[in-house]
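Quick one, probably user error.
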């Protein structure tokens, strides 16, 4: 089961649909943007869905990660690609479904 969350009303949805098929659908309650969240979604993928970074930035960060043994969020902060608060928010979305 995959977990999706509306960024506008925070409603959670559970679906067996693949993340990419739901990517462009909107919330049934408020019409807001729905993104795939949960522990099996990589932090970089959550940041991409949030529009916080682009694919090029993520690729650069992943390249750096091969050399620097840091978490992807830490690297993006050091690259000044994102604010630490965005990483915290993305980590929170990644924890969704664990509570
Ligand atoms: Zn909504």
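Nope, works fine. Designed sequence:
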């Amino acid at each position: 089961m995959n977990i999706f969350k509306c960024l506008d009303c925070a409603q959670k949805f559970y679906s067996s649909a693949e993340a990419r098929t739901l990517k462009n659908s909107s919330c049934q309650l408020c019409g807001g943007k729905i993104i795939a969240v949960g522990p099996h979604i990589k932090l970089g993928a959550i940041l991409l869905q949030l529009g916080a970074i682009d694919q090029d930035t993520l690729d650069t960060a992943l390249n750096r990660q091969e050399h620097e043994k840091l978490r992807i969020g830490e690297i993006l902060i050091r690259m000044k690609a994102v604010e630490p608060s965005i990483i915290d928010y993305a980590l929170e979305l990644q924890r969704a479904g664990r509570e």
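Residues 42-99 form one domain.
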